[in-house]
Specification:
Elements lengths: L1 H14 L9 E6 L2 E6 L1 E2 L6 E3 L5 E7 L15 H11 L3 E7 L2 H9 L5 E5 L20 E3 L3 E11 L17 E5 L6 H8 L4 E5 L2 H9 L5 E4 L1 H9 L5 H10 E3 L5 E10 L5 H17 L2 H7 L1 E2 L2 E2 L1
Parallel strand pairs: 5-6, 5-7, 10-11, 10-12
Antiparallel strand pairs: 1-2, 3-4, 4-6, 7-14, 8-14, 9-12, 9-13, 9-14, 15-16
Length: 303
Amino acid sequence: MIVRCACLLIALFLSNPLFAAGLPVVKYVIDGQQIQFKGQKIAEGGGYVFNPLADKSVVISTTNWPPYISDEPCGKGWAFDLAIAVLTSRGYKVTIKFLPWSRAVMTVESGWADILYPEYFIEDSAPSDHFKNTFRKSLVALSNPFPGGNISLMKRRSDPKLYFGDVQHLRGMKIGVVRGYQNSPEFDAMMDDGLFEVLAANDDLQLVKLLLAKRVDLIIGDPKVFRYSVATSNLPQLIKQQAEEIMEEVVPAVSYNPLHFAVSRQNANWEQLIKDINDGLNKLQANGELERLINAETTCGKH
């Protein structure tokens, strides 16, 4: 009888989402204190919950965008850890869900979720893809920036160089973009005006496949994301090797884009939420935790 009870207790322990294997743990230092939160898996719809007993709560919509952020079992990426650190340090319960980027944008612009993350700078003139005759800045507000990465064009190594630092060179070409991504103000304005042909993909890995299949002339995005997406994909090793050999970054980069939290203006307390995010970012930057998180390593390899 004692053995049966012990086995039952062990089974209950292991089935508790707080103790399930592979759940993300976020650690950081703020105000001189070491803080740790373990995520709980959301059974319905996917995602994770941190600091569930907090009085305030936010929902983040994000996407798989490694090495910055992803739903990989070996590590969620530094941007994931940063989001949890910033918001839990300000007393929020945080629910974070992984969605296709276009859907993530829609959930925040419509107010179904509170934060779109991570987001590039949004120009005042940028139109919403989901609400006609509406500017994105009227739907979301941006936090202070934090480090991001280059936005570059990628080409096939065997093709001639097609870009020399002026997006006007791209007129009439066929370019692969991730649906819903901001890239650079000049590039996005040309795209909105139909000055080159666009083939939209759901994610960065699909863009690489379009380039390798010669369905587009160029693709645009963060080179680190393209390479990491290929390296950690389930593509055969031979295809991964061919992608590395065939794909080439075009220099110079189109732009350098810092990252932001984009807060839905549909949230009644969006101004306070922006203030809390900025306060959290400032504290983590001042004590060196922001830099430490960016430079941290996971079992997937260095970010």
